[in-house]
Write a structure and sequence with these properties.
The structure is a homodimer of 221-residue chains. With 221 residues, chain A is of the alpha/beta class. Helices cover 38% and strands 21% of the residues of chain A.
Chain lengths: 221, 221
């Protein structure tokens, strides 16, 4: 399977690319608005993997180019670029599953607040922006980029997956499950995305208020 | 120290009463609007503890009566009774720390939504309702009542604690830490309560969508 990381030059894209390349047999492709930046990132990720004894080829290209051949395209972009990114690749989405990990947050005096768009969640915004026949799945919202991209770090985290297309959701769960230390958990339909996204500012507030806790993830039991 | 569970006849009150009575030396008192119901619950909790080899005396009384002598009063009532309960005991709050575990939720087609009051969170509503000199701490929002009140079950859960009064928050953290299997974590000021409370519908949605998962709690790392 081919997995494209749109905006894959950013920190969440890096972590997912490294872990997917190390732990799975999927073909990993880094996308960016800027083809040269994508190529540079892919090369740097290959080097990081080589430093950890992993030989992997990571392809790259402009976002819409890499979307054309991808089975799963992960929107590894900040929430405020999400709609623009989907619009830019829209014509290339043919049987592609779109994955939305972005979260809207704002800072106040106490810490970070969950700041969803008017449609209820960023994942819902992605679904509303994508063409009707493109399945959108929310996942990877709560991954701390620092630990994710550190291949020496163990994760042992849960990944919360939401979506209305059961088959697409299962594909994303399988992809997640193939990464060492990640356990996918189904949180139901897209309407349940707000509480999933709202966990991200909580993780950051927790790290800010507890010495020795940083790059936090979560495990449910 | 004396710990009063206002509305302690309900399921969260039961779990906290049983665990506090078993695991700590604090004096546990069950409060209710109805003194007889409180007495009945206290007796039943003593019996449950006796069945588990624990001899404990659990006192009881009407909510305002038990508040008068309590060092910590836990508002173990549904969110929609919170303000009324605080108003009813207000004159007895003298150096008492009020603890708010309530969460506002509503159901839609996908599952449970976090449904905060206009002031941002139920914990903030408790703080706004209580007299200015009464410290309000948010805690115990995310405890699954079923597992909490089952003394045969191990917890190994984190308890998220929010509040603007550092000393009061530390007292609640100490109380939490004394219960086997609960680890208190500071989530900062009252403004951070929405994301803490929003975790509760997420836990319930997770249980609803994953076979074999129920009475969920959470562990951060």
């Amino acid at each position: 399977m081919q997995v494209a990381l749109l905006g894959g030059t950013g920190d969440i894209g890096e972590g997912l690319a490294l872990r997917l390349a190390r732990d799975t047999d999927h073909e990993i492709v880094i996308g960016s608005r800027d083809e040269a930046k994508a190529a540079e990132a892919a090369e740097s990720y290959e080097q990081t993997l080589a430093d950890h004894g992993v030989t992997a080829t990571i392809a790259s290209g402009e976002n819409s180019e890499v979307t054309a051949t991808a089975n799963i395209a992960i929107l590894a972009v900040p929430a405020y670029y999400l709609a623009d990114t989907i619009n830019a690749v829209e014509s290339q989405l043919d049987g592609t599953i779109l994955v939305s990990p972005a979260v809207g947050m704002k800072r106040d005096d106490d810490g970070l607040r969950y700041n969803p768009p008017g449609v209820g969640s960023v994942t819902q915004l992605a679904a509303n922006t994508a063409p009707d026949d493109v399945p959108v799945v929310g996942a990877f919202h709560n991954l701390a980029a620092g630990r994710l991209s550190n291949l020496d770090a163990d994760l042992d985290w849960d990944v919360l997956v939401v979506g209305d297309d059961q088959s697409a959701k299962e594909s994303v769960c399988s992809l997640t499950d193939a990464i060492d230390g990640l356990r996918p958990l189904d949180v139901g339909g897209l309407g349940n995305a707000p509480e999933v996204e709202g966990l991200t500012p909580l993780l950051i507030n927790l790290a800010a208020n507890n010495d020795g806790m940083h790059d936090l993830g979560v495990k449910f039991w």
